[in-house]
Amino acid sequence: MSVEGVLVVVAVLLVLGWYLSYTATRVDRLHQKVEGSRAALDAQLVRRAAAAVEVAQRLDPATGMLLVDAATESLSHGERAESGADPLDVPPRLEEVENHLSRTLSEVFQDGQTLAQLRSEPFGPDVLDVLAQACQRVQWARRFYNDAVAQTQRVRRKRVVRWARLAGRAPMPQMIEIDDAPPAGLV
Questions:
Q1: What is the crossing angle of helices 3-56 and 124-156, to 10°?
Q2: Model confidence over 43-86: pLDDT tens digits?
Q3: How far apart are CA 166 and CA 23, in angstroms?
Q4: Helix (H, G, I), strand (E, B) or coil at 118
Q5: Where in the chain are the domains?
Q6: Fewer CB within 10 Å, N side or C side of the chain?
Q7: Per residue in 71-110, is it b (16+ CB within 10 Å) or e — as a string?
Q8: Domain spanning 26-163 has what CATH number?
Q9: Residue 46: closest CA among 69, 85, 77
Q10: Helix and strand counts by DSSP (H, E) for the chain
């Protein structure tokens, strides 16, 4: 083999090595983005549940108890999910628990009288504003998370990533589909 042939082979190997290194770094950055956006989503879900508990204290006892139960289930599910789990895994029942809280919030505020009553109380509008902001931030955080997951899945489906195993042993991140629409009239 001539010197020129060896140089061509070395150049091709260097370019291939650079491409694999670049792609592995990109996959790693995307996984970090998913983890960061997942932490933000979890924080916003906790914030929404805490705001729901605050609102529930100002409602009639029966309605307040329903809302507190749904919010407490959401809070306790978040605590159980954090203990030693892979940040790319979606905890079991997350969607079910968060959908239950969303449905309960919608049921509480469906008639409009509850909103009017809370807005007429001292500090009631402030509590409702906090809940409305928390609901809106959950929507944004879920969208950012699902966008990051979609980007990561798109890159991980490439043949070179699969063949060279550039994602290592990290699980494929999964979308989170929850009903995050704020109650009617709240926003």
A1: 160
A2: 999 999 999 999 999 988 988 999 999 999 998 876 655 555 66
A3: 8
A4: helix
A5: 26-163
A6: N
A7: bebbbebbeebeeeeebbebeeebeebbebbbebbeebbe
A8: 1.20.1440
A9: 77
A10: 6, 0
